[in-house]
Amino acid sequence: MSKRVYISPSDQTDNRYAYGNTTEAVQCGKIADACRAALERSDVTVKVGHMPSMQDKCKESNAFGADLHVPIHTNAANGQVMGTRLFCHEMGGKGYKACKAIYDQLAPISPGTSESIQEETYYEIRVPAAPTAYVECEFHDTPAGAKWIVENTTKIGEAIAKGICNYLGVTYEAAKQPKPAPAPTTKEETINMELRMLRRGMEGNDVRAAMLLMKDKGYYPDEIWSGDKLFGPKMEAGLRRMQADHDLGVDGILGAASWGYLLGR
């Protein structure tokens, strides 16, 4: 039976970054996606809880039967401190061992030097049944730290996954070079991207492509500004209408069936 990991990326949409006009919730969601993909490649079963409450995340983790609970956050202090920090329930316990395995992969690649593993009593450390490795990837209130996070979400997610695999005794499977995906087109622009399953709070070229295709089909009523790549409430509302109109399964998540309709497959 494969190991199970519950990933809990930050839902803090109000924590603005010092670089990139983005937030902790968006960037941690990207890191969690990269971590999930790497773990699943390595035959680890993963569940990601992005926007539920902490209480619901802990309930989901317990119901999932997680072997490890991994909150993923980015940090803030005084606009000067930088570095990787991890938190566990007690030094020497399973949570500490998981933290140490992740720390050994993540700390060497993060630009800051104020780095440590510490005991803490955060809700998501003391409540889950599984051991918790609480990850603060770097400090987002410094321009250098925020820029590094924004430009390295996949690298950060891979490092966390590699540490988790080492803790679980699982062989880490490195990513294979992806084949370029065909670029979907609209009347206005062409976007190079890979298709993902999209949900509210996610950001990227594929979100923008879906938004433009939805507008072309009459399901996104507003004008779309040139830099908009965020899956927000208006996009979710339009997606639900589209799914209802075309019997695509109304769940507000842009999966294979909804992509197929948008791309005319």
Radius of gyration of CA atoms, rounded to a whole number: 19 Å
- Weakly predicted, low-confidence segments: none
Order of helices and strands: EHEHEEHEHEHHHHH
How much strand content do the residues show? Answer: 5-15%
> Overall 3D geometry?
globular
| Share of helical residues | 25-40%
Q: Overall pLDDT, averaged? A: 92
User: Can you count the beta strands?
Assistant: 6
Quaternary structure type: single chain
Topology at a glance:
Blueprint: E1 4-9, H1 24-41, E2 45-48, H2 54-64, E3 68-75, E4 85-88, H3 94-106, E5 116-119, H4 123-126, E6 134-139, H5 143-151, H6 153-168, H7 205-216, H8 233-245, H9 256-263
Helix pairs in contact: 1-6, 3-6
Q: Care to describe what's here?
A:
With 265 residues, the chain is an alpha/beta fold. 39% of the residues lie in helices and 12% in strands. It has 9 helices and 6 strands, in the order βαβαββαβαβααααα. It has helices at 24-41, 54-64, 94-106, 123-126, 143-151, 153-168, 205-216, 233-245, 256-263; strands at residues 4-9, 45-48, 68-75, 85-88, 116-119, 134-139. It has a 6-stranded mixed β-sheet, sandwiched between helices. Strand 1, helix 1 (24-41) and strand 2 form a beta-alpha-beta unit. Helix 3 (94-106) crosses helix 6. It is globular. The model has no long low-confidence stretch (mean pLDDT 92).
